[in-house]
Amino acid sequence: MATIKDIAAKAKVSISTVSRILNFDSTLNVSEDTRIRVLKIAEEMNYVTLKERKNKSQNYTIGIITSYMERKELSDPYFLSIRMAIEKYCLKNNVEFKTLFLNKVITNNVKEYKDIDGIMAIGIFQEEEINVLKKISQNIIFIDSSPEEWEFDSIVVDLKYGSIKALEYLYGLGHRKIGYIGAKVVPHSNENGEELINYRELAYRNFMFKINNLKEEWIFKGYFNPEDGYKLMKKALKLKNRPTAFFIASDPMAIGAYKAIYEEGFKIPEDISIVGFDDIATTQYLTPALTTVKVYTEFMGETALNTIMERIKGERTLSKKIVLPVKLVERDSCQKIK
After folding, report:
1. Helix-helix angle 77-92:251-263, to 10 degrees
2. CA–CA dist 120, 99 (Å, integer)
3. What is the pTM of this model?
4. In the prediction, which pLDDT does 86 show?
5. Which residues, in sequence order, are CB contacts of 161 under 8 Å at separation 6+?
6. Do residues 11 and 41 touch, judged by C-beta distance below 8 A?
7. Which residue from 91, 96, 186, 248 has the highest number of Cβ atoms inside 10 Å of its Cβ?
8. Nearest 5°: CA angle at 158, between 209 and 217?
9. Cα dihedral angle (73, 163, 246, 215), rounded to 10 degrees?
10. Where are the alpha helices (DSSP H) in 182-264?
């Protein structure tokens, strides 16, 4: 395969001149004849730039890093579905990948990951954790969070829109006493630290304030898992002024809430209407099937891969934040107030 040195020798010009001509440097002061001669020789010698060779071989390795422990992924299929979607599209596009967990990355020597061309980071990360990722690669895309938007690409879902649609749906069914069950949003390694902005809770608070019915006793927060959904709903059902409907910020929490409701002798949707968030696979098989806000995790994975590959291939330097749409999926867990 021809090199710049080979072309320079045949064209009888310097290596730097060839390099600047092949990179279409408009500031280079050479004659048009020299420029054409170099380009012609490069074509005759089938010269391929390093960037083009990399693109053609598609020999890339992506690090898929999650901000949570492996056991948490198993308890929340939402995160698992995002990772599986990413891996699926990596395989489809002949992109090698390594699935890593952040706690192991931090404790290991970053030199172990020198073959990684870019990082797809799923979840919420602290500043010191981001600094570790940057030592591995400057090509980072954050998925389901958006830190340092001026520096890194990110993909998030429209949590505000989805939450409002869920609340408007319940309002349209006549519900005014709407409760909220969600999670504290904190970086995984600092669960006792400062809580971050939770856009689902914020949308709920704003909505309930607008209808003049915001009550702190109707807001319950724990972690995004079935166990806390169960515990929090148990508490909610003990209220004297019990809500007639609940907006639950994740489907795994909603699954736990279902169990608590039935144990306490109530029925869904006759006594309590429920709307979840995520549309994980199991929600359509609950009894009754759960009305929820669908997050397109497959599209999220595809979009994330396309976006990080733009960075790796040098097609873009300006960071990009992508907000993906969500959709309310109406099933059987809600009914009108009689």
Report:
1. 150
2. 10
3. 0.78
4. 92
5. 325, 326
6. yes
7. 248
8. 30
9. 120
10. 199-210, 226-236, 251-263
Inter-residue contact 293 to 329 (CB < 8 Å): yes
Cis amide linkage into residue 288, ω under 30° from 0: yes
The pLDDT tens digits of the residues spanning 26-47 come to: 678 888 788 888 888 887 777 7
Indicate the range of 52-61, 232-241, 251-260 predicted with least confidence.
Answer: 52-61
Cα distance between residue 338 and residue 86, in whole Å: 45
Q: How far apart are CA 100 and CA 189, in angstroms?
A: 16
DSSP state of 141: E
| Ordered structural domains, the chain, with CATH | 4-47 (1.10.260.40), 60-157+297-324 (3.40.50.2300), 159-295 (3.40.50.2300)
| Contact of 28 with 21, CB cutoff 8 Å | yes
> Which amino acid, 44?
E
Cβ neighbours of residue 199 closer than 8 Å, sequence gap 6 or more: 159, 160, 163
